[in-house]
From TrEMBL:
Residues the entry annotates as binding allantoate: 235, 294, 307
Molecular functions (GO terms): hydrolase activity, acting on carbon-nitrogen (but not peptide) bonds, in linear amidines; metal ion binding
Sites where the protein binds Zn(2+) 1: 99, 110, 210
Keywords, sorted A to Z: Hydrolase, Metal-binding, Zinc
Requisite cofactors: Zn(2+)
Protein's name in the database: Allantoate amidohydrolase
Highest taxon of source: Bacteria
Family classification: Belongs to the peptidase M20 family.
InterPro entries: Amidase_Cbmase, Bact_exopeptidase_dim_dom, Peptidase_M20
Cofactor note: Binds 2 Zn(2+) ions per subunit.
Gene3D superfamilies: 3.30.70.360, Zn peptidases (3.40.630.10)
Residues that, per the record, bind Zn(2+) 2: 110, 145, 397
Species whose genome carries this gene: Cryobacterium melibiosiphilum
NCBIfam families, alphabetized: hydantase, PRK09290.1-4
């Protein structure tokens, strides 16, 4: 502890300290929520009962720490450290957070690790007697994975105004329920979702801690790393239409089977990505309509996820796949349409903030990532950084995703170190100075 911190600790207001919570302990508290007995792992889609229970748990944890909790009109939860002196309430805030929703059959750490680490970081800052001079908040963003309504980072996109609210309202889930309907059933007023410049302007610096979703930290033999960039990525829906018919009575020569076209298209996706070094392209979801064992499908919808550090390469990969899909569809007597559902350019986090964190966390390797994050959406508007925590399986979006207990605690301590440096950094220009 520094001398300043010791002196400040004596004068620190008597705020509740949760005390004793570890990241592993907090994650254990939610380990039974959203377990998917069919797929394995966790399925915690936004506005499901599992996600509702996670939010309730989070609100209780934030309240227990004396944080002032508010859910905004986009469903983003904010938990504010009390703004007592020496906090300069007019200064831009330091904000940290992540998400609680998951992909179908996902792991325990993608999202919740950052949420639990932020709570533990609050405890560590309190225990160290840190007295922020800047506003400080924790956040939880809804629908980061886009696994219910198809658009990843929907909450942060709405907040930042990078998605048209009309489009967001009309997104539908697998049951055909619109985001507007589901949001309304869950306490939001869908008329008011969308850009929130006031909330965005309060953020000066955003730091998201996340489980690493690759092998960078395994190879570097380090528990914690600092993010440098997020690969550009997008999602496209391909709908192949053919002719629905009877599996027993339709001769093979007479078929217009979109499932056969879809199978060829999946291989084309792989081969196209392989032809572009460092590109990634995936078909992880495919839906035959109507979907019966003895039915030739009339239509197959499949979703393409494509990524590359160079946005022009991503565009070429998608264009090549689209052209190839049209050829394949024609050969199979079908037609195909391609619709872009979301697209995010490659993001480089604020280099000054990254370098600052590198001085606070000496030895932490600097890594880019192929996974999307709310931090990447926010980085278009505020100074943003990420911390990654080692995942010894190197696997994510799967029940195999993993974090050792000691690494989880090292991650929270690193987050607390980073936040401390940012929170006590003097506010020299009270107008709009960021750290
Ligand atoms: C989210 O994790 C994504 O990268 O799609
Ligand atoms: Mn995530
Ligand atoms: Mn994810």
């Amino acid at each position: 502890m520094t001398e300043t911190r010791e002196a400040d600790a004596a004068a620190a207001p008597a705020l509740p300290v949760a005390g004793g919570d570890t990241v592993t302990g907090l994650l254990a508290e939610i380990a039974a929520i959203g377990v998917d007995r069919v797929r394995g792992g966790y399925s915690r889609p936004v506005f499901s009962s599992a996600e509702h229970d996670l939010r309730a748990w989070y609100l209780a944890q934030a309240s227990k720490r004396g944080l002032q909790v508010d859910t905004d009109r986009n469903g983003v939860i904010w938990a504010w450290w009390p703004g007592e002196p020496p906090v300069d309430t007019s200064a831009p805030a330091v904000v940290t957070g992540s998400h609680l929703d998951s992909v179908p059959g996902g792991g325990a750490f993608d999202g919740p690790l950052g949420v639990a680490s932020a709570l533990v970081a609050v405890d560590l800052l309190r225990a160290r007697g840190v007295r922020p001079v800047r506003p400080f908040a924790l956040t939880v963003f809804p629908e980061e994975e886009g696994s219910r309504f198809g658009v990843a980072c929907l909450g942060s996109r709405l907040l930042a105004g990078t998605i048209d609210p009309d489009r967001a309202r009309s997104l539908t889930d697998l049951n055909g329920d619109s985001f507007a309907e589901v949001a309304a059933r869950n306490g939001l007023d869908p008329r008011f979702v969308g850009a929130d410049p006031e909330a965005l302007a309060r953020i000066g610096t955003f730091v998201e801690l996340h489980v690493e979703q690759g092998r960078g930290l395994i190879d570097a033999h380090q528990p914690v790393g600092i993010g440098s960039a997020v690969l550009g990525h997008g999602r496209w829906k391909l709908s192949i239409s053919g002719e629905g018919n009877h599996a027993g009575t339709t001769l093979m020569a007479d078929r217009k089977d979109p499932m056969v076209a879809a199978a060829r298209l999946v291989v084309l996706v792989r081969d196209t990505a392989r032809a572009h070094p460092r590109a990634r392209a995936t078909v992880g979801r495919l839906q035959p309509v109507p979907g019966g064992t003895n039915v030739i499908a009339s239509r197959v919808d499949l979703w393409l996820d494509a990524r590359h550090m160079d946005d022009a390469v991503t565009a070429s990969v998608v264009a090549e796949i689209h052209a190839g899909a049209e050829l394949i569809a024609a050969e199979e007597g079908c037609t195909v349409t391609l619709t872009e559902e979301s697209l995010s350019a490659t993001v480089h986090f604020d280099p000054a903030l990254r370098d600052r964190l590198a001085t606070v966390l000496p030895g932490a390797p600097v890594l880019d990532t192929g996974a999307g994050h709310d931090a990447a959406i926010l980085s278009g508007f505020v100074s943003t950084a990420m911390l990654f925590v080692r995942n010894p399986s190197g696997i994510s979006h799967s029940p195999e995703e993993y974090v050792e207990d000691s690494d989880a605690e090292a991650g929270a301590a690193a987050l607390a170190d980073a936040l401390e440096a940012l929170l006590i950094s003097p506010v020299t220009d009270t107008a709009r100075e960021t750290v």
